[in-house]
Design goal:
Layout: H1 4-15, H2 41-49, E1 53-55, E2 58-60, H3 72-84, H4 93-101, H5 107-129
Helix pairs in contact: 1-3, 1-4, 3-5
Length: about 140
C-alpha cells in the first residue's frame, strides 16, 4: 500500500515537465534537488515508442506548450494537496498511478477529482469485503 510520500512522488513524476530529461527534481525523500541521475526507465520507453524526435542527431522530447507547463513549486504544492486527500496505506501505488494516467496531462483535474475517485474505490472495496448471511 502507498504511503503519502509515495503518492506525492507518483504525482510529481507523472506531471513533471522534465519527465524526458536525464535529471529528476526529486530526492529519494520526495524533496527537490538538482543533481543529475541516470536515465529514467520512462525515457527508454519513450525511445522505443517513437515519441522522441531526432534533430541534428540528438533525440529530443516533443515540445510542451509553455502555458501548459506548471512551475515545479506549484506542482509540488498540488502534489502535497493530492497526497493529503488519500488515506495513507489504503491504496496501492498501481491504483493511484492508474487514476493519474487517466488524467495524464491534467494535474489540476486530478486534484479536483481525487476525492470522488477515493470515495468510489473505498465503497467498491467495502462492498467486496461484506459477508453475506448464509442460508
Amino acid at each position: 500500500m502507498a504511503s503519502r510520500s509515495q503518492i506525492r512522488k507518483l504525482f510529481v513524476r507523472m506531471y513533471s515537465a522534465d519527465t524526458f530529461s536525464a535529471t529528476s527534481p526529486l530526492k529519494a525523500n520526495g524533496s527537490v534537488h538538482s543533481s543529475t541521475m541516470s536515465v529514467q526507465p520512462n525515457v527508454v520507453a519513450k525511445l522505443t515508442n517513437g515519441d522522441l524526435k531526432k534533430a541534428n542527431g540528438t533525440l529530443t522530447p516533443p515540445s510542451i506548450p509553455k502555458e501548459k507547463v506548471i512551475p515545479l513549486e506549484e506542482l509540488m504544492e498540488i502534489a502535497e494537496q493530492f497526497a493529503e486527500r488519500l488515506p495513507e496505506g489504503e491504496f496501492t501505488p498501481a491504483e493511484v498511478q492508474g487514476f493519474l494516467l487517466t488524467r495524464k496531462k491534467e494535474p489540476k483535474r486530478a486534484l479536483d477529482e481525487v476525492g470522488e475517485w477515493r470515495d468510489n474505490l473505498q465503497a467498491a472495496k467495502a462492498a467486496k469485503t461484506k459477508l453475506t448471511p448464509s442460508q
